[in-house]
Design a protein that fits this description.
single chain; about 450 residues; alpha+beta; Alpha-Beta Plaits; 5-stranded antiparallel beta sheet; 4-stranded antiparallel beta sheet; globular
Length: about 450
């Protein structure tokens, strides 16, 4: 099995076709101290947006970190260039790579779980006559959503059903890259004999809660293909209850689940907003794609800063993952956890000008039903939107004109062949799609029929 090396879709461009310093979503990180983990490198990009791939060159003290968008990569470089970040108390240096994307020979292993987060490690084994797999995500929130979305689903139609739970393990130590174990951040590991060890020490603040257990109940020899996208702090998925499940507790509000160990604050601090365009309702709709928003407060004296209170900590982390670094009304928005545990409503008579809103009982919450398909359809902002709940009387031209009237550029449209109440619409940019979602989610077609808008993983 050959080592993994980054390549581009096309042949590498001729010399001079792309300047080394020109923006790319792949970042080159240098002077990485020995002993730094893949999760620590991923954490450098985590605050700025979704991380989609990582390649560690440990012998050279270097790494390639792939962000989901060029804008996110630009934010990383702009932030760290004046003040290089420290890993193990040593500065590391970040610049744009010549690669447009990272592609590794291991990507064939990364299919089922890849849409939920960056997968750091995989270990496959047999125990109690069952084939089992441990998966370690880079982020606990990704592991949570993988479990919620895939538990009980079949790899093939009618067979190979996944049983997923949280593992008690903290971290996987992979010694060999072969068909039984793999560390996707290490290309320097030997092929070995397939044996692996598992560390159970408390090596991250997320502890056992980042470990998810996918149970594979299909025939032996048909190993599920596994993969992931991003985060900060490991999450491990095992297969059938061999190592013991970790209970996911349910909060008092139905449909709102907490992942033990994920930092408990559910209030986000959102900054660098456009004060001329932002509204509490707009933030409610946008952040509501990734969780149920209970309250929003735009600061009275600093209109470019807001607080957004999600239903629970895992939803807050998910919103940070997908929305931090996203362009909104001409500015790159920053989202992080706030020091405040809750948003206080204004006292009676206190001047507020409608900048604080309570949405805790809103009928527009997407995740109030624990069985909702919305849990399975959480995707990063994209230029293509998924439309549903479209009345039969509404035509293609009606929908195109509706989006155009909101300032969108419609580049593509198609109804679903299997369901004419759903469609995909491709707009001019991701930012246009974000604005359109805010403006048109819950659009009233009349007769109590409201349009539902979400981001799509597909393109037209």
């Amino acid at each position: 099995m050959s080592n993994s090396t980054p390549t581009t879709d096309n042949e590498k461009k001729s010399k001079g076709d792309k300047l080394p310093g020109s923006p790319s979503r792949v970042l080159h990180i240098r002077h990485i101290p020995s002993g730094v983990s893949g999760a620590e490198v991923v954490s450098l990009g985590f605050p700025f947006g979704k991380v989609t791939n990582l390649l560690m060159l440990r012998g050279k003290g270097q790494a390639f970190l792939e962000m989901a968008s060029v804008d996110a990569a630009v934010s990383v470089v702009n932030y760290y260039t004046p003040a290089p970040p420290l890993l193990h108390n040593q500065p590391v240096y970040i610049q744009y790579s010549n690669y447009k994307e990272l592609r590794t020979n291991n990507q064939r292993h990364q299919a089922i779980f890849s849409k939920f987060g960056f997968v750091l490690k995989i270990v496959m084994f047999h125990k109690n006559n069952q084939f089992q797999v441990l998966l370690q995500f880079a982020d606990a929130t990704n592991a949570y959503h993988a479990k919620m979305s895939l538990d009980g689903h079949s790899i093939y139609n009618g067979c190979c059903t996944l049983r997923i739970d949280f593992s008690k393990l903290t971290n996987l130590t992979v010694k060999y890259n072969n068909d039984k174990s793999r560390d996707f951040t290490r290309i320097d590991l030997p092929f070995g004999d397939g044996q692996r060890t598992i560390e159970t020490s408390l090596s991250t603040p997320f502890a056992t809660q980042n470990t998810v257990f996918p149970s594979y109940t299909g025939p032996p020899g048909f190993a599920p293909v596994l993969g992931f996208p991003q985060g900060a702090g490991p999450s491990v998925l095992p297969v059938p209850g061999a190592l013991g499940p970790l209970t996911v507790t349910t909060s008092a509000a139905p449909g709102h689940m907490n992942v033990p160990g994920v930092p408990g604050n559910s209030v986000l601090l959102v900054s660098n907003l456009n004060p001329e365009a932002i509204t509490p309702y707009g933030l409610f709709i946008l952040f509501g794609v990734y969780g149920d928003v209970h309250r929003v407060k735009i600061m009275f004296k600093k209109r470019g800063i807001a607080l957004v209170q999600m239903a629970d900590a895992s939803q807050a982390q998910l919103a940070i993952t997908y929305l931090n670094g996203q362009r909104l009304y001409g500015r790159v928005m920053h989202a992080t956890l706030s020091k405040y545990p809750t948003i206080q409503l204004p006292r009676e008579g206190q001047e507020d000008k409608g900048l604080t809103k309570d949405y805790s009982n809103s009928p527009l919450h997407r995740f109030k039903n624990p069985c909702s398909k919305n849990f399975q359809n959480i995707f990063p902002p994209s230029a293509t939107l998924h439309l549903s709940n479209i009345p039969n009387s509404v035509t293609v031209d009606d929908l195109k004109n509706l989006f155009t009237s909101k300032g969108s550029t419609v580049k593509g449209f198609r109804f679903f062949q299997s369901d004419c109440k759903m469609a995909l619409i491709q707009l001019g940019s991701v930012e246009e799609a974000v604005h359109a979602l805010i403006d048109l989610h819950n659009h009233d077609f009349g007769e109590n029929q409201h349009l539902k808008v979400s981001f799509s993983k597909s393109s037209i």
